[in-house]
Amino acid sequence: MINTLSLEEKMRLLIAKGGFSTQDLNGKVSKIEVSDGPCGVRRPNDEYPNGIPSFCYPAPHVLANSWDREIVYKIGQSIASDCIEQGYDILLAPGVNIKRTPLCGRNFEYFSEDPILAGELAAEYIKGCQDKGIGVSLKHFCANNSEWDRLWISNEIDLRTLREIYVKVFEIVLSKVEPYTVMCAYNAVNGVNCAENKGLLNDILRERLGYKGVIVSDWGAVHNRAESLKASLDIMFFEEESGYLDLKRAYEDGFITEEEIDVSVNRILALIEKVSKTKEKRIPISTSERYENAFNAAINGMVLLKNKDNVLPLQSGKICLLGDMCVNPARCGGGAGGVSQKGEIPSLKQALKKYLPQIDVEYEMLYANICPTSNPANEQITNIPKALDLVYDSDVTVMVVGSSSIVETESYDRASIRLSDKIEKLILEVSKNANKLVVVVESGSAIDMSAWIDCVDAVLYTGFCGDVINDAIAGVLLGKYNPSGRLSETFPLSKDNDFIKKGTDSIRVDRYSEGCLVGYRYYDTKGVDVLFPFGYGLSYAEYKYSNFTIEEKGEYEYVVGCDVENVSNKDGDEVVQLYVRQIDHVLEKPNKELKRFKKIKLNGKEKKRVEFNISKDCFESFNVWNNDWFIPKGRYELLIARNVRDIEHCYKIKV
Ligand code: BGC
Question: How far, in Å, are 272, 388, 640 from residue 602 at the CA level?
Fold first, then answer.
């Protein structure tokens, strides 16, 4: 095929056509249609600049809170089915950037602060999608960890941190599945824009990580098309004539050769062929199955953070619902990861009544939580005496608070991880009048609840659960379903906590001086108090761990196991986590690191055995002198845990 193309045609193929298609060379090759994700299909057109309305799934941060590989795989299949029906070939998702700060406006789109959890789950999302014949764009390579100044900022990161944290997540994904495309990030890393960063794209992504597919740019991220070709970037998005002119000039000047152009053209032609072949085999799953997958993901991703005296699930009695989010829930964040709403979503009251038509429930708006963490002026409070009367007369009050797609969105970071003053004060005021107070929190990333959490009875953190949000909340509040999420990011305390503020010491440079100590690796190593640790979450059931065993299988190889028993009568799911700690290290290391995890379903009174295979990768660090992984010899602990701060059992070993 390549032999039938002129040099100009080959150069044109290296640049997109319009905003969301690849070049078709006037029908000589097939076009590939792309659409944003990851929460749902989002393809803008003139009529819908924010995307044609589509079904919205729980966002990746909720999927990550589920810690459930199968659930994430099924969401991949579901969203691929939407792409099939809407005629798109490649989904511009998932994003696997590490949550370096809870302020990042796109955290809802990303999975975790931990590269292993994020990488393992993102791989399932991709497998789900690609098994249905829809390619993905794994993004944003790499270190796009905040939105502030993302087009201009240079993230200064040492090689070890880059490989152990920010590239690691991509490395894990690529070790399990080959995404059709990888998208580069907007920002620079160590002074070189990602789109033109040969060290990152060619030397690390292609040569070290073995990626053979197509690399695309983020939208408008290319500064010089010829430089980006040298870095091995294949397709520049979106279409701009300047891209072609860059290539033409560089070719004429001898800066790039036809052979170099051909390398990228061949990769693009191979992608076009792959997409054409899969097109014939694409079969969507049914819409009811998609809804069910979204619902299961939501239930499994909701995290019960507090449940004093088992106030949840709700018992019979009068229930009062407060907050306009009961009617207009926070389905998802904004920007490229947002999804325009298609159809009606039941209010929380309607959803509760679907389960229990006779339920005694009343709703009072009290406050409109339009834009809580950035612009309190947008919050309206209505009729406080009426609402407080209702609260006083009810057995349980459920307040829904959180954030929105205006606050958590592409191009912006949050100013704070607290709710606004007004909302915090309202929670305290309501708590004085309520018999029991349950707070439901809908946000895309951590919220510091320390100002009010001691005054409320229960907190259910839902995250952005998409269009099933109210159905799932109602099911969980009533105990029809047991929430089984565990936090995939630390919920820190914002007071005196400098780390979560931007580490920028110049407007163009963000120095990652914390090194590998990101997220729990930081809080845990430095002994900083947090509101809720990484991996934390309660359940309506109760689990007991026992019968711990370890078996040495070979060099660096062990099998570690335990029994987990659901000692309650309620069915539920437990997440067993395995952390590794080196106790006599010379290298500065995090206090512990997650290496394995398993989610298990346990019916009431059921007991199951959980086993983890420990191998080399559990002990590796990155050696910058040899530019390779190595195992620092010494004494290690293998920790079976419920969360990063709740260790059930410790095995000491020497490697
Ligand atoms: C975002 C990408 C997105 C692209 C296309 C960019 O602004 O950073 O994540 O896929 O736009 O909408």
Answer: 45, 41, 18
8 Å CB contact between 560 and 612:
yes
Contact 163, 170 (CB under 8 A): no
In the block, tokens 């270190």 appear at 143
Site to probe by mutation for ligand 1, drawn from 238, 239, 410 as the one with most ligand atoms within 8 Å of Cβ, is 410
Nearest to 137 by CA among 275, 212, 38: 38
The whole-model pTM stands at 0.97
Q: d(Cα 491, Cα 115) in Å, to the nearest integer?
A: 17
Average pLDDT per run of 10 along the chain, which is 655 residues long? 96 97 97 98 94 97 98 98 98 97 95 98 98 98 91 94 98 98 98 98 98 98 98 97 97 98 98 95 96 98 98 96 94 96 96 97 84 53 88 97 91 90 93 98 96 98 98 98 98 72 67 93 94 98 98 97 98 98 90 98 98 98 96 96 98 96
Asked about 149 being catalytic, the answer comes back as: no
Please give the Cα distance from 273 to 268 (Å, whole number): 9
Is the CB of 219 inside a 6 Å radius of any atom of ligand 1? yes
Q: In angstroms, rounded to a whole number, what is the distance separating the alpha carbons of residues 304 and 204?
A: 40
| Atom 7 (ligand 1) nearest CA | 219
Contact 491, 472 (CB under 8 A): no
